[in-house]
Amino acid sequence: MAMNTGFTPQFSLDELYISPFSAERYFDSVTGQALYRPVERNMSPTGIHLMDRFLQIVCLSEHYTVNTLRNKLGVDMREFSVFCLLLTGMDYESLHEAIRLRLADDLLRFTDLEMRDVARRCGYSDYSGLFKLFERKYKRTVGDRQRQLRKRGDVGRWRL
User: How many CB atoms lie within 10 A of CB 138?
Assistant: First the structure.
């Protein structure tokens, strides 16, 4: 839950988000063939090891769970929540949810991954968790959200 703490957070979600995409599509000017070029990603957007490790796990893992996250970070999640609040103005759960929503939107818009794979990349063990999140936040299904986001030519614009 975002809280008014009387100070400006050091990092916004846009500054923290690590895109899951490693390459961008472009078209050869001579042949018109679709090709991909690597994109540069800042893997340490904060310069703070603990926060950057958290971001790498939630933005780039093909599958993780909250238990995996807890074990890899090696910290008490209540303490980590205070840490997140101080850096972002959001506690751990709010920050994690905001990243999950952004990641899911990107995956739904730019890939042809199956819904269960999108859910796994967002840290859910099955599709129902992602479905419930979208119902609560967007008041729509995952498929409806995908249709809302996706524009012609979006699928394949980026590569994982």
Answer: 14
For residues 85 and 91, is the Cβ–Cβ distance under 8 A?
Answer: yes
Mean pLDDT of the chain: 92
Distance of CA 88 to the CA centre of its chain: 16
Q: 3-class DSSP state for residue 45? A: coil
Q: Which domains does the chain have, with CATH numbers?
A: 13-150 (1.10.10.60)
Residue recorded with tokens 């850096």? 87
32 sits in which H/E element: none
Burial of 74 (0-12, 13-18, 19+ CB in 10 A): exposed
DSSP, collapsed to helix, strand or coil, labels residue 113 as coil
CA dihedral sign of residues 117, 122, 123, 127: negative
Cα–Cα distance measured from residue 98 to residue 17, given in angstroms and rounded to the nearest whole number: 10
Contact 8, 88 (CB under 8 A): no
**Range in 1-5, 40-44, 45-49, 112-116 the model is least confident about:** 1-5
